[in-house]
Design goal:
Two copies of one chain form a homodimer. By secondary structure, chain A is mainly α. Chain A is built from 15 helices and two strands.
Amino acid sequence: MSANGKAVHEAQDRALPVCQPERLSESMRYSVLAGGKRVRPVLAIAACELVGRSAAAATPVACAVEMVHTMSLIHDDMPCMDDDTLRRGRQANHVAFGEYTALLSGDALLALAFEHLARGCADLRVVPAERALRAVAKLGNAAGAGGVAAGQVADKASEGKPVSLAMLEFIHLHKTSRLNSAAAVCGAIVGGGTDGQIESVLRYARSVGLLFQVVDDVLDVTRTSEQLGKTAGKDQAADKATYPKLLGVEQAQAYMTELLAMAEAELQGFDDAERAAPLQHLARFIAYRQN
Amino acid sequence: MSANGKAVHEAQDRALPVCQPERLSESMRYSVLAGGKRVRPVLAIAACELVGRSAAAATPVACAVEMVHTMSLIHDDMPCMDDDTLRRGRQANHVAFGEYTALLSGDALLALAFEHLARGCADLRVVPAERALRAVAKLGNAAGAGGVAAGQVADKASEGKPVSLAMLEFIHLHKTSRLNSAAAVCGAIVGGGTDGQIESVLRYARSVGLLFQVVDDVLDVTRTSEQLGKTAGKDQAADKATYPKLLGVEQAQAYMTELLAMAEAELQGFDDAERAAPLQHLARFIAYRQN
């Protein structure tokens, strides 16, 4: 794990003390501290550094976005959603802790995300309250009806039906990309970026967010459960709309290349190549990842 | 509906535009605009007025707290929780819209609560960002592992077991009272109350919050489903810990009287009797309500 990844992990560990009822704390800790790729924290921190601030200013945002993401995974795995039993190489939260605890630990993580963001920025004193409040609004939008929840509903409603490319883009834009974008944009906001810088970061993040989903879909059909650490071939079994299903695997892979180029182009506008390097590496990491 | 109640209803209507996917918007609107007692919005606005500001400054807080409360009801009614089919006199959200939509509209409402609070206070310009951010943190804590979610987990985990009075108080403190207190405290915060005033409001709200739950428990055994607009006798059927079960109906009613007196005593500290009147009426309304 990188130094920033370690800082985020430790901050999340501190943000999740074991308290009554332990069943709830343990369920929250189980999923948040399980690891994962931590793409969103990296995005938040790299965007904050890109606009000239240190990683520490973005730690509350990075933790908050990851809590929202973890909530969405816990709820996504539940029986009334994807009914998945495996996540990040181990039992899904609802299998390990039972259904009602999984439901409520997702709710608690979503609430904690905003509490942590607000309190964390206030404690830091280097992030003005106006900026922190703007980040709260952006994250709220991306987590709810303007993002994750809208994407999940559209995704479920599309199962077993013929799905247009427009609907597929709607689903992935909302379900995945908006939260990735919010991570980067919030990082740039708390980092004190100008409006123009925040716009560039947003466009970069949109390309990377979509790239992330196309790669995910492709891996689901080209890799095994063991290689992925989660159930492979699940999308196909549920007859879900995916890029390989709609475009074929080869076309989907060509789309990946195109999206990577678009993301990299957005970084050209920043003079400081050294500061832009982490976001460039991240885009490539996402494009070439194997699980 | 009072003028303040109408303002909150209209603000929530505006905060919930119908957008894609309509299924999600409609599910959110169905539960938020269903009415209900709106105790928390009244608390938030009355506390804001108590410390000397107009109701308008507390409208974003009032809406946000009611969204959090509505989310908790939607999730509480789900099959993996209380499996209730009736709410506020009509079908529970998961019955009307299906289980996954209910799950996700709860998530979306929770996220919207924070977005609305942050954006609403920023738009008003009369609430300094520091105060709005403090309200976000308080509401996040009350909605999650420091409040509602913790109370719901403890409640479910207690079903069918002998429950101590200490556990019963833990459940109600977290499941209900913390959110009521957050409504009042956040109202006093955005209203610009002093630390001492905020403390008084908190103690008042704690008594009223507990009062609310004891009354709820008593009504569940003394009234019919038709009178309540929700399934009566449900707690008993699920063998849930309640005040009438633990203390008997008469003792529970005596406790109601005691809590009302404690709440009223907290308001004596405020010089301006006129400003304190709404909170005094609210406590009495809660104590004497019939559904």
